[in-house]
Amino acid sequence: MIPVLLLFIPLVAGILGFFIKEQKAASNWAIVASVVTLITAIVGIYAMPASMHQFEATWLPSIGASFSVALDGMSKMLVLLTAISMPLIFIATRNNNYNNPGVFYALMLLAQSGLIGVFISMDALLFYFFWELALIPVYFLSSIWGGEKRIAVTFKFFIYTFLGSLLMLVGILYVYMHTKDHSFAWSSFTNTDLLSGQETLPFFLFFIAFAIKMPIFPLHTWQPDAYEQAPTATTMVLSGVMVKMGLFAVIRWVLPLFPVATSAFAMPIVIVSVIGMIYASLIAIKQDDIKRLIAYSSIAHIGLMAAAIFAGGTLGLQGVQVQMFNHGINVIGLWILANAIESTLGTRKLSELGGLATKAPTMAILFVVLAFANIALPLTNAFIGEFLLFNGLFQYNIWIAAAAGVSIILGAIYTLQMVQKVLFGDVSAVTANATEINSYSKWVLVVIVLAVIALGVYPQPLIDLTKDSVNALLVIK
Amino acid sequence: MNAIIVSALLGVVMMFSGIFTTNKTIIKNIATVGVLVLLAANLMEMYNLFSFDINTHDLIVTQRYGLFFNCIAYGATFIYLLLSASDITEVGINVAEYFALIFFVLCGVAILSSFNGLLMLFIGVEILSIPLYILTGADKRNLKSNEASLKYFLMGSFSTGVMLMGIALMYGATGNFGMVHSAGIRGAIMATQQPPYVLVAGVILLFASMSFKVSAAPFHFWTPDVYDGAPSVFTSFMSTIVKAAGMLAFIRVFENQYTVLGPTWHIVVDFAIVTTLLIGNITAVFQQSVKRMLAYSSIAQAGFMLFALYANNTEIAKEGMLLYAAAYSLATISIFAVLIKLQDYTLDGFNGLAKKEPVLAFAATVSLLSLSGIPLTAGFFAKYYVLAGAMQAGGALWLIIVAVILAAVSVYYYFRVIQAMYFKEGDPQTLPISGGFKAALIAVAALIVILGIWPSALLSWLYF
Lengths: 477, 464
Fold this sequence. Notes:
- By secondary structure, chain A is mainly alpha-helical.
- Chain A contains 20 helices and two strands.
- Chain A has a two-stranded antiparallel sheet.
- In chain A, β1 (54-60) and β2 (65-70) form a beta hairpin.
- In chain A, α4 packs antiparallel against α6 and α16 (361-375) packs antiparallel against α18.
- The model of chain A has no long low-confidence stretch (mean pLDDT 89).
- The longest helix of chain B has 32 residues, at 143-174.
- The mean pLDDT of chain B is 90.
């Protein structure tokens, strides 16, 4: 029952949210709904017996599709990430004002419902449904409340991902035709009569869809624009949670379905991912806009995770699981800072900022901790994740690991450059009358920073949570 | 049989109702009730309660599948009349005649869903088409309407000629008017090992003329001009119910064609599908008028429906054809109903509609999402079923990939309307909109979503 509740609480709350007219009321409603979801997730995952973690109902028996949802290790972790992110996002951006606030928060909640659906569905057709449904609210969010070029940019994003998912649909159909019992269930999909040579085509049909979503080089071109133009709250959902859909989907729907094709094409994909990491890091160094810088840095981080997935091995896969969570909360923290800077100072240009450390010391401390987490310094949560990822890559191929290591150095360059330009140096005309960030954002950041340090010192809970899915994967492989 | 007889009778009733009253509301209501009577008569036959017993010497064979298609077509007509009947009465002065012609078209629909043999196919197609030539030109004082009507009539009669030529050649080769897959034709092939050239030529000519009727490329050229020129209410009818019926006839006459054309058949169908999808989708991208865009979109959707033809009678494709007919008709009728209410048919005419008329914008959005095949709308399962049918028939993977890429293209032009309504500022001028109209639009949108979650809600009636 728990997964069904997690799906329907935000869904129903979202639908009701459409009728709220007033800004504060809509914001409160969204916060309450997302906190209830969070409590349900925590109680459901940690306090309820495993029998409550599954639910199955008939949907379309004639074509073998069922409403089958379940929480296993990996989906528990991502559901937790989604459930934690939403209240943080809502609270941190509470001071932002929107036209039609009810619709804005309603769409955000619907996006949450879609995301949770993606993570918990154990039926390919249901998965496809949620995969698309998570996208539609984001399309409207970005197109209505986004920046100047929002319509064109969001449209590009939408068509890009829609094309990917249609190809995935063909892949799903293809695998479906080869299942022994003509069913869309995950268990049937992992047990098909596909010959090893027949795996290549569906492998790529699936993989392209997920690669667009992650995104990995060279399919990433929608991403920086979309992040820049979307309203910040939506960008947080996009980069904190939504890109994890791609990584998650590869682990759930590609590795177990097409083991032969995965190992056959692992090398080129790992190489492309690493190229993407270096490429994105180099571009990030050149960025003057904080949002675009974080966007490119995100591409680099995702590239590392993608490379580790295909490099395989226990440690690498374990690292991906841990890092998906860590990257999610870290990047949300960075976006909150970017949002705070933009909303108080009216600019996101690094060249116009400077000297904020003297003007806003609390923010500066939080900023620096999150920047360190972005470089994966020890004692931050990202360190554990990246350590495991590199370990996996290293065991796969030492030269590739070395090349990927370059991007870590580049990462330090652009992140520290950003810290330097924002916090230190002379106070510019823009920052002369800067104030401390508002208390909503501050307390959310404090929570995130505490989580960064806590998980950096003691990451065992995350590893325990996801251990079973990693082991299950290795058995299948 | 019920549907054929009752619809023809209702057509006559409508014609005479014009003599006794000129009150538009009464005529409109008679027509709406008439469609319900027709639907009830058809349901009676479907559930073996009552049917006219006429010996047609096997020229008409009613089957569950065809009767169920009639239900969908008449249900769609009912919704069409609910939304647009009052706009039909505004087209010109001969109000009763318009409804009479619509009933004659519905008679053609019933024949096309139950014909058994090429002669009845021909009669059905003609009964379906001739009223449409008149409806296209119904707006007598509008030059574009006249032009469209004349163009449609000339091209349509030419294609009728081609069809007759094809049927004659097939008759010459086989000595009977049986279907393409009938025993007579198979006998002719068995005798010579290879199908006689006369037969092949006949089949190809028949294929061309049926392609014309469903506006499949490369016989689609009439479609944009006729759909654009005809009064919008009738475009809505032509591009939905009529087109679905034509497609059904196309599929029925060509089921199990492998025996006649062998591998050549695949080349013909593949070519038709790819060109139809390409031309429909790519050309629609460049349209500035929403009405014209919908004309090209109807070509593109026909390309998808052709997959049901490709799938050659697999169970899932047959169900898919029904679902496609329902999903496509509902969505198109609803978007046309919104379009008719607007003064300006260009994309800019939709600017800011969401602010001014949120219900209309919402209903149009659901319809457009359904047309582009987004999950949670009927259009998704419609596309899913026909593609799955093609996949099951085998050998079509590249074709399906081409189709989904072009479906992604279709998102471009459908979403431009959504963008105009929701993200752009403007002050669209609309005709007066009644509360009942809005309620009907919401009901249609709800129906689209229900079919999008649970297509069995419709399809299970095929068996129970």
